[in-house]
């Protein structure tokens, strides 16, 4: 069963086309990583899949339903790139994770035992049960990211969509993250994630899709990072937007490139 099916997608902002003729399919239980240089259109692709950015041309099906008719958004968990709550919202870790239940229970019903259990399970899964009552703002960046994945897991989704889940995250949190995703996949979940570097997520990835200047340039086994990204002590500094966009060769040597 195809969980996400993107066909000949074009997307733009303010008249500037960013994605051109992108087709991508993710089957049930697959773990697919979208790779590519800064600004290549990775986030735009998954945000369009989630209905957050309008489609200019092409089609997207979710769970074999055209996106415009899709209503089962509780089946989709989204882990965005950054935790906005770090910016002064005094929510506790438990509250942020509990907000992941809203799509399931509706805002007019009080949380029941199933909601509380789901929140507890999700917190335990990411190793933050003991931090449930702490304000999110007091957590490290990596722990905040784990809070976000717990929020998505609490909704018991069938599909998890993650945007650079490990960017700027400490090694311990990256490992915890990878373990949580593995358990989610082992339980039948489907994962679509954007990554700049795979790190500990690499063994989980069934298929990598490299986006280059708004087109799919490679699809297949996760390519080995080349150049400076391959150095063990390479510490990726995320916003290198001021530099020329890094080439496709960072991810996929030309002899491994496949036509889309
Ligand atoms: N809301 C927006 N309005 C206008 N332009 C945008 C918007 N969001 C993204 N863009 C532009 O679209 C292009 C692709 O951005 P996108 O965030 O999809 O790339 P990305 O591959 O995810 O990059 P990164 O690795 O830096 O997150 C960039 O040129 C970006 O400036």
From TrEMBL:
Any Pfam family hit: ABC_tran
ABC transporter domain location: 1-238
Keywords from the UniProt entry: ATP-binding, Nucleotide-binding, Transport
InterPro entries according to UniProt: AAA+_ATPase, ABC_transporter-like_ATP-bd, Metal_Ion_Import_ABC, P-loop_NTPase
SMART domains listed in its UniProt record: AAA
Gene3D superfamilies: P-loop containing nucleotide triphosphate hydrolases (3.40.50.300)
Record flagged with keyword Transport: yes
Coiled coil: none
Family: Belongs to the ABC transporter superfamily.
Name of the protein in question: ABC transporter
Source organism: Paractinoplanes deccanensis
């Amino acid at each position: 069963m195809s969980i996400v099916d993107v066909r000949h997608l074009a997307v733009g902002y303010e008249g500037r086309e960013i994605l051109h003729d992108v087709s991508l399919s993710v089957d049930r239980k697959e773990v697919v990583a979208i790779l590519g240089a800064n600004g290549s259109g990775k986030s735009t692709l998954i945000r369009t899949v989630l209905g957050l950015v309008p489609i200019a041309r092409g089609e997207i099906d979710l769970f074999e339903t055209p996106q415009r008719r899709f209503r089962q958004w509780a089946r989709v968990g989204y882990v965005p790139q950054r935790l906005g709550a770090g910016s002064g919202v005094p929510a506790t870790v438990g509250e942020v994770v509990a907000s992941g239940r809203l799509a399931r229970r509706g805002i007019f019903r009080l949380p029941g035992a199933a909601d509380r259990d789901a929140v507890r399970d999700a917190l335990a899964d990411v190793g933050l049960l003991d931090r449930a009552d702490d304000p999110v703002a007091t957590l490290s960046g990596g722990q905040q990211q784990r809070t976000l994945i717990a929020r998505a897991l609490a909704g018991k989704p069938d599909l998890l969509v993650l945007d650079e889940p490990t960017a700027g995250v400490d090694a311990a949190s990256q490992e915890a993250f990878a373990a949580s995703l593995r358990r989610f996949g082992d339980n039948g979940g489907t994962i679509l994630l954007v990554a700049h570097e795979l790190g500990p997520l690499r063994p989980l990835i069934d298929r990598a899709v490299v986006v280059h200047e708004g087109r799919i340039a490679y699809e297949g086994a996760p390519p080995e990072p080349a150049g400076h990204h391959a150095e063990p002590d390479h510490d990726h500094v995320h916003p290198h937007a001021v530099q020329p966009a890094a080439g496709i060769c960072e991810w996929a040597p030309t002899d491994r490139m496949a036509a889309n």
